[in-house]
Structures are given as C-alpha cells and as structure tokens.
Amino acid sequence: MSEGFSNVLVVDDEEPMRHMLELLLRRAGFEVVSVESGEQALAHLAEHSVDVVLSDVRMPGLGGLGLAERMSAEHPEVTLVMMSAFGTVDLALEAMQRGAYDYVSKPFKRDEVVLTLRKAEERLRLRRENAQLRARLAEFEGGVSVIGKLLIHSAPMRKLAATLRKVARFETTVLILGESGVGKELVCRALHELGPRSGGPFIALNCGAIPEGLLESELFGHAKGAFTDATRDKAGLFEAAEAGTLFLDEVGELPVSVQVKLLRALQEREVRRVGETDARPVDVRVVAATSRPLEEMVEASEFRRDLFYRLAVMPLSIPPLRERREDIAPLTADILEAINRRLGTTIEGLDAEALRILQTYDWPGNVRELENTLEHAAVLTEGALISPRSLPQRLHRERPGADAAPADDGKHFHLEFSIDDLSVKRAAHRIEHELISRALDQTGGNRTHAAKLLELSHRALLYKIKDYGVG
User: Fold this and answer.
1) Does 58 fall in a domain?
2) Phi/psi of residue 110, each to 5°?
3) Which residues neighbour 226 within 8 Å (Cβ) at sequence distance 6 or greater?
4) Residue 139, domain member (yes or no)
5) Residue 13 and residue 35: Cα distance in Å, rounded?
6) pLDDT value at position 410?
7) Angle at which helices 458-468 and 424-442 pack, to 10 degrees?
8) Which label site among 20, 160, 190, 203 has the fewest CB atoms less than 10 Å from its CB?
9) InterPro entries, alphabetically (predicted)?
10) For residue 328, what is the domain's CATH number?
C-alpha cells in the first residue's frame, strides 16, 4: 500500500480507459474509484476522502478545465493530475495554470502514470509534514503547546524561548537547571517537539523516584535470569527512546555506580543490558535536568565530573516564578482554563485582592505550587471569581504586611487555622506541607535524608513533594 496516499479518483468518460486505470493502479497499491464525468467527480469529493484525482481533459459536460477551477475553490487539499490526448496538451497546461499539479499524455506507458502519481504522493507527504511542523511551531509560539503562554510574557522566558528554538535543531546534550516546580519537563518536551526527533518517542524518568537497585535495569534493560525477578528479557528506557528523546529528571539523584554506566552510554552511544555481555547501539537524544547544585556535588565527589561535563554541554536555566512575577497573571488565566476543563468548574478569574496576593507571594514551589493553589481555590469557590477567602492560609501568612510569625527556634512551628475551616483533612495536609519543607531545609534539599527524618519511604516523599509543590 502506498505510504503517502491511497485514495485515487479516476475521471474519464471512456469506460475501457477507466477499467484499465483501475487495474493498473490497484496493482501499484492504490485504492481506486472511477467516475465518468466532472459532475460525478465533484459529487464524490463532497462525500468521500480523496487524495488525488486523475482526470481526462476533454469530457462532455464539466471538462478538465472546469473541474480544475472547481477543485481549486472547493477542494484545494486534493491533488489533480490531468490526462491529455495528442492535441490537447495546451489544454492540460492551461489546467495546470488553474490549479492542476501535473499531466500525462495519452497514449501513455503504464509506468508513466504510476511514476506521476508517486511524484504527487511525495509532494503530498512533504505538504503534510510541513503543515505539521507549522502547527507545532504555531503552538509553541502561540503558547498552547507544551511550553504554554509562559514563554511570551517575561523577558527571561522570552530569552529562554529564543534559545530553545536554536538548541532544538541540534543534537547537543542539554542540562536544564531550575528549582523544583519551574517546568523543567515542559522545557524538555519543547526541545523534543521543536527538533528533528519530534516524530520519535519522548520518554521521561525521575531518577530519584526509582530505588537504586532497579535504576540500572530501568535505564539499560535486563536479560532473563539476570536477577531473581527477571522472568523475561526487558528493554530499558534507552532502547524505548530509540530515535527520540530520553529525559532524565533529577539526574543529581543518580548513584555513582549508575553514573558510570550512563557516561559510557552517552560516550559510546550503546547500552548493555544487565546480565548480557554484548552492547546494543542506541540512537537517543538525552536531556537531563536537576534542581540540585551539580557543580557543588562535583566538588564534594557526589557527582562524577566527567559526567557533569558530558551532560552540561548546553545548560539552560529556568528562573523561579518569584523572579518573573509578570508571568503570574497570564499563567493563572491559562491554569484556570485547564482546571475548568478538567473539573467542570466555571471560574472566570480572581478578584483584585486575590490576584494581588498571588503576585506578592514568593512561590517556593513555583508553577507547580501555583497550579495546586488555584485548584484548591477553584474547588472552594462558589462564585465566578476567586476571592482571598478561597486561597490557602500560607499565602495570607507570607504576604507583605501580614502579622509576624512567632520566633522559630528550629524545634517548633506555628500553623494558623481559620475558625471557618474545621477540615481535619486540610489541616493534615498543611501540617505535612510544613514538615516536608522543614525536613528539606534541614537536609539541604537531600530527599533521601529528608525521607529518613520524616519516616517516609523515598518514593512516598517524592509523590508528596510533587503534590504540595515543595522542594
């Protein structure tokens, strides 16, 4: 079957010619329908999907010229190829001026018709690819794709957008830097969508969410019998991302033993499954991200220097939300629109005081915290506008002019509760949020140590950090 298109409509008033073309084109892999007039062709086009029309020039009623004009106006997406007998070549050329793509002269060799359709097929394929690329670019620039309208407001994000467009075209290894919740995965998706690998898979892995003993198998795969639970061969994420992009989030959480094997995979462009001796070639673009200070970790011998330089060929920094407060209002509008679609709410926006609170809050959890905050407010809001009363208490406590909190000796903390809010569930969430924030501060952001202090599993802590937008 043809890869570019499969539906051909033959238009000719001579039945033997229609029958011959049907047989010829079906053998070449096309799906063919034939009609005997231009009027029937237009009726068929109105009801069915057609990729190319192969039409005679001279026919009773609506001939090739008239058909070319009507198709240009009514079906510009359909490719028209004309057939012309000796003496009507000038008419075929005139039809091309009116929108036809090409013509073949009667009598023609069988291969000539197929070759002409193959050329039209390639043209159609290129047009479709171009349309897809334009659509992706329009989405990116217009702000409705993976990066959102975020990129077109503040100066720092406009600068990042311009850099992304340049970097995406090349196979350079990129390291995305930024605090938790700023949207590092979205930036990586933009690199993937805007680059030559957009047609391939996009595979993401949070390196801190997988237990150390399973990381190597997850990345590189394993052979059957390589360890107790290896009941079958399994491809790793490098192989799953073939011809696409592999996003390694929180790469600073990788244990040193896995760092060595990741470096080899990047240098040699091949992976070796656990339990196998032969390496497998891989064609993958790797993009890494971290919220940890990798350069400091290198100096402390917690992260391999050679791997750092391999990953950080092109570092991209995403500024925190507190440094681009002009993004808060447009981001809020976009997020509320998405929340309305997902939850079925009808929130139109925020009143002036609620918006002022959002714009003066420091957003330690960045965009993710803003999303969670707005969903919290949308659920509690009964009218069309979110008021300060629907916003979480932490935003009221931390805004300028709020009453000073009691002195913090590092052993106690104070939580305010509204007399109108007696929900045990929401109170428990606020306490968890505070405890997790304290544990991360105390451990310098080390999530493994923080999990031990909190008496949580590492995986449970990561889920809660994501839910609460902290870290």
Assistant:
1) yes
2) -60, -40
3) 217, 273, 274, 275, 276
4) no
5) 8
6) 47
7) 110
8) 20
9) AAA+_ATPase, AAA_lid_NorR, CheY-like_superfamily, Homeodomain-like_sf, HTH_Fis, P-loop_NTPase, Sig_transdc_resp-reg_receiver, Sigma_54_int
10) 1.10.8.60
DSSP β-bridge partners for residue 81: 54, 102
> Tell me, what DSSP letter sits at residue 345?
-
- Domain-terminating residue out of 362, 381, 402: 402
Which DSSP letter does residue 405 get?
P
Number of domains in the chain: 4
Q: Tell me whether residue 141 is in a domain.
A: no
Domain boundary residue, one of 133, 158, 179 = 133
d(CA 33, CA 275): 56
CATH code, 469: 1.10.10.60
In this prediction, what percent of the chain has a pLDDT beyond 70?
A: 84
Number of helices (H) and strands (E) in the chain: give both, helices first: 19, 16
Strand extents, DSSP E, 124-243: 174-177, 202-206, 221-222, 234-235
The pLDDT value recorded for residue 147 is 47
Max CA-CA distance within the chain? 99
Please give the Cα distance from 20 to 40 (Å, whole number): 19
| pLDDT tens digits for range 369-406 | 999 999 999 999 988 999 999 998 888 875 544 443 34
230: which residues sit within 8 A by CB, 6+ positions away? 217, 222, 223, 224, 274, 275
CA distance 237 to 449: 27
Residue 2 within a domain: no
- Contacts of residue 365, Cβ cutoff 8 Å, sequence gap at least 6: 180, 181, 372, 468, 469, 470, 471
Instruction: Say if residue 308 is in the same domain as residue 344.
Output: no
Same domain, 120 and 199: no
Q: Which residues lie below 8 Å from residue 346, measured CB to CB, with a gap of 6+?
A: 340, 384
Confidence at residue 422, expressed as pLDDT on a 0 to 100 scale: 53
Could you tell me the sign of the dihedral formed by the alpha carbons of 355, 356, 361, 367, in that order? positive
Three-state DSSP class for 279? coil
Q: State whether 256 and 367 are in the same domain.
A: no
d(CA 460, CA 211): 12
Residues of the chain scoring pLDDT < 70: 1-6, 86-89, 92, 128-153, 398-427, 429, 444, 470-471
231 burial class (0-12, 13-18, 19+ CB within 10 angstroms)?
exposed
Question: Do residue 252 and residue 298 come from a single domain?
Answer: yes
CA separation for the pair 137, 143 (Å, rounded) = 10
Same domain, 313 and 165: yes
Tokens of 17: 């010619």
CA nearest neighbour of 145 among 204, 187, 197, 205: 187
To the nearest 10°, report the CA torsion of 108, 109, 113, 119: -110
